[in-house]
Design a protein that fits this description.
The complex is a heterodimer. In chain A, 36% of the residues lie in helices and 25% in strands. Chain A is α/β, with parallel strands linked by helices. Chain A has five domains: 189 residues, Rossmann fold; 212 residues, Rossmann fold (3-Layer(aba) Sandwich), CATH 3.40.50; 59 residues, Arc Repressor Mutant, subunit A, CATH 1.10.10; 65 residues, no CATH class; 192 residues, no CATH class. Chain A has a seven-stranded mixed β-sheet, sandwiched between helices. In chain A, strands 6-7-5-8-9-4-10 form a seven-stranded parallel β-sheet, with helices on both faces. Chain B is 51% helix and 13% strand. A seven-stranded mixed β-sheet of chain B has the order 1-2-7-6-5-8-9, with helices on both faces. Chain B has a two-stranded antiparallel ribbon with strand order 3-4. The chains are: A alpha/beta, B alpha+beta.
């Protein structure tokens, strides 16, 4: 019988194993780090001391102590805390201390999801009960039973909620929360990095409303934010809360040696540059580790992937381990189920977990030995979050990232320096996006009348109030504006949906139980949900049977076909106003307001493996218009040596490459930022490539690109150059650009841009 | 680009929640304390109440006690009060120990539905007895921003002990508290009141015959109140927004009349409920009498329940059976086994369906555990099983009436009978 190998043996094994070692694109070792601790603060309440002792804590990590001191001195903070660094004490210590000193003190905790709120309630209650403190902490969300809501409002020292509930369940009813708002000393915002983009912009406005109500009741709370590692935690925290913040990043938690391996599956189709499926490779690697009983967590990007990998792994090890020792772990699980898995992991009964990014957020599952990522998780920040799941405080850990064929994955895996040396993405929000702002000004007016000199945002509050008055939503009397409408505005405003009028996706596979499975903004729906489109939802194929554009509903049915659909969107982009312009020798970089008009024209059916065109059809939908912000770069010379056709194809290829790379610079989903080329832009008649925000009014993504254009161009160039294909493939310039010279021409265009922009 | 231009460009994406056509909005910045349309208001008994540089409007109307509203005169309310004061039985609606003048009938009109800070109360209306008159007062918010005079004037006037409302426990009063909180630094505290919410009483008494229990339905079907040219309540917010903009009293007067009838109907409704509860209404239907008796039984007023239900037990109709069953349960609770048994037996004899099923089960229990007559117990248990078997809708009942429990009871009885010495 073969002996089980330990992690050390595995590590030396994979360095020599023929099957594995050739696919290693990079091997990076992070040295271990000792704990940096300091004594507990001297003024700490005896009961808190006792509670910490019971948990076996007699010293604090440096960052915990810094957080305590800053917040007790009345400063707002943002603490950057990697996975498993004891971040909860950063806020629980000052909050509990303040309540023990003055029982009228109140604190509001905000977590992005209900599940996290539940976890945190258990965590804080453990401390409270350990020392028998007389402190009430409650969750308040959609699940809170009506009969205890009153008690939470009146007697909850710590109220734990989520931004959606704050927005529609607490702020519009603030008169029922007088004792909370009069005594609110702390607002805790956990997982700060999740508040970005449209969602973050909404939440920033919810916080404006919260502060407005606090001000009305005479309180001025300290904000305590905690964030995963991102490029701009301080900026994000300050933009989100509009408070001056102290950055706390002296993490004192220890960590062991960590090996970070980039694994690129072998090429199976040379001309198309297609690699072996990442899912299959992950199965193989994880299977090997689990056979050796090495605790392993596997991340996959969708629930379906999780299920596929899980089924396979459970099968693989069923004789040795029994199927219960490998579990799935997803967002939708019940708290009790999750507790069971967490306990199993800590006790060692469970060896393997397969998870979606649900576990990126701060749920405590203990520490595992190996982490495997099925594909690049999309951002450097979440890659580090996931990697943080492996790594005990002592001993070694292994992280393996298995790349897929997508351009972004291939870029990352072939540029390990970029990943390891570059600071993670910037999280952007734009609380002054007019559409979001106006929505929240309505909610704010519902909550309290606006006064003439009141400043709600950084754009003219009074002008916006006049607009709402003209629309007969507000009524001006003297120097105040009053809500004058019979609706409840918060109910019509969702913090998490991109635009107000989305297309609802209705699954009618089972006529007896027709259900809504998702929604999509109108703009994307034109190309993804037109009649006959194949729509992929969490890995399952659906065909759109009918798109009811007036009612904004798409009716879909599950199918199993061997093709996907690709729709042509005729996009016209017009610059309305140039806000910034940076002329450089042979090019210019601009930023401003644009109007994007889009019309879906035809769609093609494309066979999976071969990418053959196996049919097409027209799309009958009206033109859509989007007003947003864009950044563009234009060439002052026409590159006439290329000729019109090659210039156009080259621009198409360049745009594809830029679209793949742009998300690296702003923390955004790929669909949040669009890139389109124009051979002759309307406003300056020059060959131009535009980057625009997909959300009406813009959320700051293209503005960020404006200041980092050179880098985006440079990295795109590198990506194309390093691609092993001959004349363009899905991993570099995409398949839309036709002609054998497209790859060459794209590089030439990038060079032309770079020559000018880098001066 | 200017903000205004941007707003106009983004307009298709902005939901204002207001699709109505735009009208020219007159400048609404008021600085003087001029009352627009003062003469027209005076014709409607409306006068201003001034506070600092602000004001609200108050309408006051007096009714002689002999005035009729629906099936009753307001004077009948005095009879109702006397009756409660002579009653010995307790009841949630009992005004024992109260003077007629201490009750006030209260209703509001608001700018929206549901609770929420921004749902403004623009009309606080109430009526009460003063000597030989019923006096109705309505405090009107002339525009948002006049809430301090509104609540100041309201709180000066209301010196009562108990509110009488229709669904005011869930809606009107919490909303008054919410809006009051916003001006609490400028006006007196809200006093605490007792509260008779007639909505719950109406639900108890007339759920069997009315599909919806809105006050307007109860008025029409039970109280005999007829509304002429009434403005439906759901239009009130629109009419009020209109009034705020153009100040013309016409629409508001319609709302005042609507609110007035609501409040007067509360007086009639309370009178009628009292007459029903105290047995003064000789036109009560047997169903109504049963509901009254059941209500007394539910709150533990067993003598009163027996008195009321006793009037129904000589019949053989469904209501008589229901009354007997209710009384039988009350006897059971009092451990008066023989009385209980006799009534249960009658229910089995004359009743059908669920009534008979429940009675059989109760008899099986009494015979088994109290009267120690296992044969009779078995007989009633078997009868219960037969009833249950032939009625499909009983098949998924739970607890005592479930088939499993009935069968288990039967088996146990059989075992006991087999063991017992003959």
């Amino acid at each position: 019988m073969k002996l089980k190998k330990d992690l050390q043996a595995i590590l030396s094994d994979i360095k020599v194993n023929e099957d594995f070692k050739d696919n290693i694109a990079a091997w990076h070792t992070l040295p271990k780090k000792e704990a940096q601790t300091v004594t507990c603060p001297r003024d700490l309440h005896p009961l808190l001391h006792e509670a910490l002792n019971q948990k076996g804590i007699d010293e604090l990590y440096t960052h915990q102590r810094s957080a305590y001191e800053a917040t007790m001195a009345g400063r707002s903070i943002v603490a950057v805390t990697p996975t498993a660094s004891g971040k909860t004490l950063c806020y629980n210590l000052p909050v509990l201390q303040s309540i023990l000193n003055d029982p009228s003190t109140r604190a509001l905790y905000m977590f992005p999801t209900k599940a996290l709120a539940q976890d945190q309630k258990s965590e804080i209650n453990e401390i409270i009960q350990a020392a028998g403190m007389d402190i009430n902490s409650y969750t308040y969300d959609g699940d809170t039973p009506a009969n205890i809501r009153q008690r939470v409002r009146k007697a909850g020292h710590v109220v734990i909620t989520n931004p959606d509930m704050l927005h529609s369940g607490i702020l519009p009813h603030h008169t029922k929360w007088v004792s909370l708002f009069e005594n609110l000393k702390f607002v805790v915002i956990d997982e700060l990095h999740t508040y970005r983009g449209v969602f973050g912009s909404h939440v920033a406005n919810v916080i404006r409303r919260l502060k407005r109500i606090c001000h009305y009741y005479g309180s001025n709370p300290v904000f305590i934010c905690t964030s995963a590692t991102i490029a701009n935690p301080l900026e994000l925290a300050e933009n989100l809360t509009e408070e001056n913040m102290v950055l706390i990043d002296n993490n004192g938690a220890p960590s062991g040696t960590k090996h970070f391996v980039f694994y690129n599956p072998p090429i199976v189709n040379k001309p198309l540059n297609i690699r072996r499926s990442a899912t299959l490779e992950v199965r193989k690697i994880a299977g090997e580790l689990l056979k050796n009983k090495i605790q392993t967590i596997v991340f996959a990007r969708s629930r379906v992937r999780v299920e596929i990998i899980l089924t396979y792994l459970q099968e693989l090890v069923k004789h040795e381990l029994g199927s219960k020792s490998i579990m799935g772990y997803r967002g939708g699980y019940l708290p009790t189920e999750r507790r069971k898995i967490e306990r199993g992991l800590r006790s060692g009964e469970i060896y393997g977990v397969v998870s979606t990014n649900a576990l990126e957020l701060g749920v405590d599952i203990g520490q595992l030995q190996v982490c495997i990522m099925t594909g690049y998780p999309g951002t450097i920040s979440s890659a580090w979050q996931q990697a943080g799941r492996a790594g005990r405080r002592h001993g070694e850990a292994l992280v393996i990232m298995v790349a897929s064929s997508s351009p972004l994955d291939q870029y990352i895996i072939q540029n390990p320096d970029y990943f390891f040396n570059k600071s993670p993405e910037t999280a952007r929000i734009n609380p002054d996006n007019l559409i979001i702002l106006i929505d929240h000004m309505k909610c704010a007016a519902y909550e309290l009348p606006f006064k003439a000199d009141e400043k709600f945002s950084n754009v003219g509050t009074e002008e916006l109030l006049e607009y709402l008055t003209d629309e007969r939503v507000l009524y001006r009397n003297g120097d105040k504006w009053y809500w004058m409408n019979d609706s409840f505005p918060a109910h019509n405003i969702s913090l998490r949906s991109a635009s107000q009028e989305n297309v609802i996706i209705v699954d009618q596979t089972d006529i007896a139980s027709v259900k809504v499975i998702g929604e999509m903004d109108r703009f994307s729906a034109m190309t993804l949900l037109h009649d006959e489109a194949i729509y992929l939802h969490q890995g399952t194929q659906f065909q759109v049977e009918k798109l009811d554009w007036d009612e904004k509903k798409a009716f879909v049915r599950e199918v199993d076909v061997d093709y996907f659909t690709d729709a042509n969107l005729a996009v016209q982009l017009k610059v309305l106003e140039v806000d910034k312009l940076q002329p450089v020798n042979e090019a210019e970089i601009g930023y401003g307001d644009v109007s994007v008009r889009a019309m879906a024209t035809i769609f093609k059916k494309i066979k999976f493996e071969t990418h053959e065109n196996i049919g097409s059809g027209p799309i009958h939908l009206p033109e859509e218009e989007l007003h947003t912000n864009a950044t563009w770069i234009s060439l002052n010379r026409a590159l006439s040596e290329l000729g019109a056709v090659r210039l156009e194809q080259g621009l198409v290829g360049t745009a594809h490459a830029l679209r793949s790379i742009a998300p690296l610079f702003v923390m955004a989903d790929p669909q949040d930022i669009h890139v389109i080329p124009q051979v002759k832009a309307d406003h300056n008649e020059k060959p131009t490539i535009f980057f625009y925000d997909r959300y009406p009014g813009g959320i700051g993504l293209s503005e960020k690109i404006y200041s980092g254009m050179t880098e985006v161009l440079l990295e795109s160039k590198k990506m194309i150059e390093r691609c092993q294909c001959e004349s363009g493939c899905p991993s570099c310039i995409g398949t839309d650009a036709v002609g054998d010279e497209a790859k060459h021409d794209s590089l030439m265009i990038l060079d032309a841009f770079l020559e000018s922009s880098s001066r | 680009m200017s903000l205004k231009n941007k707003l106009n460009r983004l307009k298709p994406h902005l939901s204002t929640g207001n699709s109505s056509e735009k009208k020219a909005v007159p400048s609404s910045v008021e600085t003087s304390v001029e009352i627009p349309y003062k003469e027209q208001w005076e014709l409607e008994h409306v006068s201003p109440y001034y506070l600092d540089k602000n004001f609200c409007l108050i309408r006051e109307v007096k009714y002689p006690l002999d005035q009729r509203h629906g099936h009753y005169r307001f004077r009948d309310f005095l009879t109702a009060m006397e009756t409660w004061n002579q009653q010995s039985a307790a009841h949630p609606l009992s005004a024992k120990g109260f003077q007629a003048e201490e009750l006030f009938f209260f209703d509001t009109e608001t700018t929206g539905l549901g609770g929420g800070t921004g749902n403004t109360i623009f009309l606080l209306g109430y009526a009460s007895i003063e000597g030989e008159e019923l006096i109705l007062r309505q405090h009107i918010l002339p525009n948002p921003g006049a809430e301090v005079p509104l609540y100041q004037s309201f709180l000066e006037k209301i010196n009562y002990r108990t509110l009488v409302t229709y669904n005011g426990k869930a809606f009107d009063w919490p909303q008054v508290k919410t809006r009051h909180t916003l001006v609490r630094e400028h006006v007196p505290r809200l006093p605490s009141f007792g509260h008779f919410d007639l909505f719950h009483a109406a639900k108890r008494l007339w759920k069997h015959k009315l599909e919806r229990l809105k006050l307007a339905v109860v008025e029409k079907e039970v109280l005999g109140v007829e509304r002429v040219d009434d403005i439906p309540g759901f239009l009130a917010p629109m009419i009020y927004f209109d009034f705020v903009e153009n100040k013309k009293p016409d629409g508001m007067i319609g709302i005042l009349k609507h609110n007035e009838i609501d409040i007067l109907s509360l007086v009639t409704l309370y009178t009628h409920l009292t007459f029903q509860l105290c047995g003064l209404d000789h036109d009560s239907t047997r169903m109504e009498t049963f509901e009254v008796g059941r209500w007394f039984a539910a709150i533990g007023e067993k003598d009163e329940a027996e008195k009321v239900l006793g009037k129904l037990t000589d019949g053989q109709d469904v209501t008589a059976c229901q009354a007997k069953l209710t009384l039988a349960f009350q006897h059971k609770k009092e451990r008066e086994w023989d009385k209980a048994r006799n009534l249960f037996v009658e229910v089995v004899q004359f009743g059908e369906g669920r009534l008979a099923l429940d009675a059989c089960i109760e008899l099986a229990k009494i015979y088994e555990h109290r009267l120690k007559d296992l044969e009779s117990a078995l007989q009633y248990c078997s009868q219960a099983i037969i009833i249950s078997e032939r009625t499909p809708s009983f098949h998924n009942l739970s607890g005592d009436a479930s088939m499993e429990q009935l069968q288990a009871r039967k088996e146990r009885l059989n075992r006991k009978i087999a063991k017992s010495p003959r």
